[in-house]
Amino acid sequence: MPDTKTSVGRDRRRVAAEQPYELSYFKRKHKLTEEQARKIIKEAGNSREKANALAEKVKKA
């Protein structure tokens, strides 16, 4: 258990693409294929904000 209570829990601003549940959630949320989701997350790094913005662009295209 960490000493500081501020560092407890997951950081929801980041996408952990190596975790199957994260990838599954992201692709369902944006109605993407697994390949599209992986490509977007790779391009955006682990920033959830950037990944969501890129996914919106893909959906509009």
From TrEMBL:
Taxonomy, superkingdom: Bacteria
InterPro entries, per database record: DUF3606 (IPR022037)
Pfam families according to UniProt: DUF3606
UniProt-recorded name of the protein: DUF3606 domain-containing protein
Organism of derivation: Sinorhizobium glycinis
